[in-house]
Predict the 3D structure of the following.
Amino acid sequence: MSRTAAAAGLTRGLGLVAAMAIILANVIGTGVFVKARVMTCNVGEPWLVMAAYVLGGVLALFGSLAYAELSTMMPHAGGAMNYLRAAYGRRWGFLYGWMEFVAGTSAAGAAIAILFVVFLNDVLGGALSPLAQRVLPLVVLAVVTGLNLLPVRRSGHVVTALTAVKVSLVLGIGVAAFVWGDGSWGHFGASGAAASCADVPASARFGLAGFGAAMIGALWSYQGWDQLVLVAGEVRRPSWTLPRALVGAAALVTVLYLFVNAAYFYVLAPEAVAGVSPDSSVAREVMVRLFGAGVASLLAAGLMLSSFGTLYTGTLVVPRVTYALAQDGLLPAAFARVDPATRIPRAGVLAFGAWTIVHTASGTFEVRSDLSVVVLLAFLGLTVSTVFRLRQTMPDAERPVRAWGYPVVPALYLLAVVLLIGNTFVATPGRALAGFGLVALGLPVYAYYARRRPPDGPADRPDAPRLPAAKTPAAAHAEALA
């Protein structure tokens, strides 16, 4: 089948509501329920935690404005791979997909699996042994991998329901805190600097380094705002829907996050927030204070569902990216094979699940989440930079939407990315080096497969047809919402 014919097989069935739901499903996962602890340890003061969430939301919004131009210019499946390939060549498109596989979404999945078991332990009243807490995340990932081998269409309604659970949890915690809590606004003027802060390095506490580390925590909570562009080829009226979904979802998530974090600090003093055990969550401690351990266990069950939904959706997406790379001859052909019965790229799902299990067995939640954020942030910045590059190299290309505030807004985004990555090398250098080291391993892999490919050329332009990926979670989501 030709590329043009294959591309014609994509169905543009995603409207604005479904597109925003996809972003919410990816973004609202675990960070907003647990990261307040480590962020308070980083900066000490509640208002600085809130400031980190505001700036994280602004960064997501600024990035969304740039992605609005890029995604409407190239409304193809694969998202950032297309923009990077058109701007900087096939190597950078490959490295984006490689990054998602080896360090980005895989490390994030490992962190979320660890948290799933933390929430399970809360439900069981702390009955899990230390050995069980180490082994069960591996079991959870094996189950998620197995579920991802089933036809995607069957899971559409489940993913939609889990998205509703996520939003309801955030709103429910905030409303409960302000309606039934006997908290104090005076907590916002107190400090959590005296807390012991287990697992938080001294180099990541207080000052500029501490605030930068808190920003990494906030960005973990916003992670996934860009995932919609991976399925841009299935969005209806892309020049109208994509920018509204990207910007609208970023604004909505920011408001939700500020609301629930204000609720945390209204109920708990900052020293109590910073002193929460790494094996629990700030959201649970708030519910214990308000309603007792019984209701907190119900919350933990909801947090399990939220984390499972994020883990499931992330595990669905990345094998589609490796599928596209294999279709271009840049990965083994097995990754491009789709099961005729389920329409699932089985080899990619199994390989991704196995690698995520390796991540889970080799680090804690904080290590895996920080490793994930720093490499994803780097590629988000690199992708935003393509706005400048493509305006120079392809000034006459059709741009249905132009990035608002260009060139100032994307330049500010890039400056923030550079500063945050630099700060990460100061505050947690081991995690940063591990993340970028895994990405660098993709260079010899690319060199091996690219030797049989023609040089970059017209096929890498933004107006060139693209091969469709296998059925994506977005398509199932759209069918469930229809």
